[in-house]
Amino acid sequence: MNTTVQIKKMSERDCGAVWELQKKCFSVPWSLESIREMFETEGYLNLTAWEDGVLVGYIGIKAVLDEADITNVAVHPDHRRQGIGKQLLEKLLRQAAAEGVCRIFLEVRTSNAAARALYEGAGFQIIDIRKNYYEKPKEDAYIMVWDFLMPDTAGET
In which family does this protein belong, per the annotation (predicted)? Predict the structure, then answer.
């Protein structure tokens, strides 16, 4: 089921809402100050998903030259499994590719099968494991990559 949401570029006035969403989604959320600092640092692109004026999701990326790292993907727990994460990821991949990004990396908890399925469905591939990457609880992360130049991933968006 796809939920109709408005996806737009995150603005500085969205920082408080993003911070509140992070606290609902992550055991170790970023600080409000860290979220605000993204607007002072070159290379960040953050998209937000809104439904009836309420923030229901966001995704962020930090690009350097032609490579980037996904910094966060969050969908409000009450709005999961409605296609919001997929919509955010697809729009982010299109925008990043349009801006010259050829390769995108991310880390995902090894236990997070739903997120891994989302990323694999978009063309990301597991390339390695980062030991003890996450805290609360301590857990390994899969390192995944999406490569615009690889035939297996480029056509998936």
Answer: Belongs to the acetyltransferase family. RimI subfamily.
